[in-house]
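Example 9 (inverse folding). The structure is encoded as follows.
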């Protein structure tokens, strides 16, 4: 029998300990319901683990510092991570380096749940890329949306600017070493005037800033017109 150790960890019948990759409890975004969201997520994982046949796809043979193998998990043939995101219980969490298989499905499930106000999305919205909205999240994980006002490709990094006051407005930064994973300088420059959704930990760099290390942190939503203004 599969044991649900916690909201991130499964112990399979033969003893293998699995880290459920690609998701986190939605309480990572909403501190006021953190305990409530973890309890609801653990209960739902336990229901699925007991009711369905569990299969795992390990992402590596190496264990993390807790002795867990990160893996994608199927419950009754359905991707567990996708199911939990679609029910508004979990959010998509990018990997630090290598792309996660099926991550686009987890993102789509999260967006669909948000659109129909499922689970803990009932009374919650994503913040816009404004300093007033994101400053309280500095040092914490955030998912936010905004219009890219301008893009600056510099020697050491690329800047996605969400306002005209670079010393105060929201900025996303991509180190030069990571640019090619985003397609290179030209595709990044073409993000000017686009609406995007970003996720990751926020820092204070003369205003709220997020460092993008993986394309999994960036979703292009639509075209907003010259200068990033919505029509």
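The amino acid assigned to each position is listed next.
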């Amino acid at each position: 029998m599969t044991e649900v150790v916690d909201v991130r960890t499964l112990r399979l019948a033969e003893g293998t300990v699995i880290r459920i990759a690609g998701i986190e409890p939605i309480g990572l975004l909403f501190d006021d319901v953190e305990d409530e969201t973890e309890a609801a997520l653990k209960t739902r994982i336990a229901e699925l683990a007991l009711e369905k046949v569990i299969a795992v796809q390990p992402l590596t043979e190496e264990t993390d510092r807790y002795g867990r193998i990160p893996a994608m998990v199927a419950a009754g043939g359905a991707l567990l991570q996708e199911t939990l995101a679609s029910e508004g219980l979990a959010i998509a969490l990018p990997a630090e380096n290598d792309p996660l298989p099926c991550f686009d499905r987890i993102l789509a499930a999260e967006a669909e749940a948000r659109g129909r106000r499922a689970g803990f999305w009932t009374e919650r919205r994503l913040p816009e890329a404004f300093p007033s909205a994101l400053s309280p999240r500095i040092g914490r994980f955030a998912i936010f949306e905004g219009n890219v006002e301008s893009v600056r490709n510099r020697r050491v990094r690329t800047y996605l600017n969400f306002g005209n006051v670079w010393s105060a407005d929201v900025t996303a930064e991509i180190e030069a070493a990571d640019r090619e994973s985003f397609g290179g300088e030209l595709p990044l420059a073409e993000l000017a005037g686009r609406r995007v959704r970003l996720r990751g930990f926020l820092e204070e760099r003369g205003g709220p800033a997020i460092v993008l290390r993986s394309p999994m942190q960036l979703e292009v939503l639509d075209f907003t017109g010259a200068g990033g203004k919505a029509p």
